[in-house]
Amino acid sequence: DGGITQSPKYLFRKEGQNVTLSCEQNLNHDAMYWYRQDPGQGLRLIYYSQIVNDFQKGDIAEGYSVSREKKESFPLTVTSAQKNPTAFYLCASSILRDDQPQHFGDGTRLSIL
Amino acid sequence: GNSVTQMEGPVTLSEEAFLTINCTYTATGYPSLFWYVQYPGEGLQLLLKATKADDKGSNKGFEATYRKETTSFHLEKGSVQVSDSAVYFCALSDHGWTGTASKLTFGTGTRLQVTL
Lengths: 113, 116
Description:
- The complex is a heterodimer.
- By secondary structure, chain A is mostly beta strands.
- Chain A has no helices and 11 strands.
- Helix content of chain A is 0%, strand content 50%.
- Chain A is globular and about 40 Å long.
- In chain B, the strands form 3 sheets. In chain B, strands 2, 5, 6, 10, 11 and 12 form a 6-stranded mixed beta sheet that branches.
- The termini of chain B are far apart.
- Classes of the chains: A mainly beta, B mainly beta.
- Chains A and B meet through strand 5, strand 9 and strand 10 of A and strand 5 and strand 6 of B.
């Protein structure tokens, strides 16, 4: 079955530590996205990528970094500069048309130790 | 900029009751509109979509009509079930050119709880 796989499901970060969240898709989608979800809020866009080796900042990119070395993969690094990283992180992908939906993974919940 | 406003939750209904979750939006141009559903501990699943004015999206008994004159996309279901308990998100997509990624703007979500 085609889909998006996020790992791990739960992740814990120590102070001053960078952590990387994995996102892999086998839908052959060109575009990939990272969102952050906080309780009682909608999803906010962190970064997105339309093509390999290219990505753009979303609304809340500070303290995060990404790479897109392969079409299938779009890992997100939460750096120590992100002072409030506790949240649910969702990865999505889509084809390059605005009338087509984004497909989401099951998310990674990041907490601070 | 674009924005989406959803009714506050939680919404608590008895099984077989009628459901309406209001959604209004602000956008330039003609965005595509979506409803997504999120079950506990999971990602979002597309529930339905509409891409132009007066389109009606429907799926699993849920419906929503793209109303340009009122900038609304209200979600309705005639008879809810306990299994419909989840968080529902209204979202709009930038009207971009084919070949570019479209960014979604989400509402804050509405939690629905259906009881027996």
